[in-house]
Design brief:
Elements: E1 2-7, E2 19-25, E3 28-37, E4 40-46, H1 61-70, E5 73-84, E6 94-103, E7 120-122, H2 130-142, E8 149-156, H3 164-172, E9 177-179, H4 182-191, E10 195-205, H5 216-238, E11 253-255
Parallel strand pairs: 1-4, 1-5, 5-10, 6-8, 8-9
Antiparallel strand pairs: 2-3, 3-4, 5-9, 6-10, 7-11
Helix pairs in contact: 1-4, 2-5
This protein binds zinc ion.
Domain Nucleoside phosphorylase: 4-226
Protein name: Purine nucleoside phosphorylase
Function: Purine nucleoside phosphorylase involved in purine salvage.
Amino acid sequence: MRKAIIGGTGVYQLEEARETQTILTAFGSVSYDIMSIEGQEIVFLARHGSKHALPPHKINYRANMMALKMLEVDEILATCAVGSMNDAFAPGDIVVIRDFIDFTKNRPQSFYEGDDTKVVHVEMTDPYCSNLRSRFLQRAGMLEIMVQGEAVYVCTEGPRFETASEIRMYRQLGGDVVGMTNVPEVVLAKELGMCYAAVGIITNWCTGIEGNSIEGHQIDQSMALRKNQVTKAFVDVLTNDPLEKSCACSRSLIVL
Ligand SMILES: [Zn+2]
């Protein structure tokens, strides 16, 4: 089986030698890089396109995830640039996403549209693969990469940023960080039975937190600082298979 890395904002390619390919899915075509690292084939997919041209609400999430499934990927690690509304997570920090709260509005969220006379639900006890999360934490520790903690991700529709009142509400609901892309990406991975985990790089304080406004150069600086560390740890995780896997990601569908 192959492994995959999805690069979010600021992570558009890996340093390793690469070869770009395209695959056609039922939802559209997807370009990706493929690399062989330590005998393991790793697919790299830039979520917003290699030139960061696709805004969060226009990303073809179903095409991206179906492409990975067709490429026989069973484990995916993704980066995401996030704003922080938790005082414990400052710009430049790295967090492992533990759970999400979904505030998206207009995105297809499922491969199962009921047209084959089945109703399919997907289990969300562990939206982010517990096995990949713990392997990332372990490998990051071995590489002396500081991980600040685990975070609840609030997904907004974007592309606008949140208002100060929205951030106050998200905070009260238990959110730690905000981004615009993890839903439906994590949900679709689960529907296809692939293990998926996401690591957030805090790029800014959310609107109204710390009294700062969000500036583009802050986001660029935080990403530049951390992206190589995070992708190095990803490659390390994906090229070292665990002795045993205890997650239930491949058995998450409930068919009624
Ligand atoms: Zn899993």
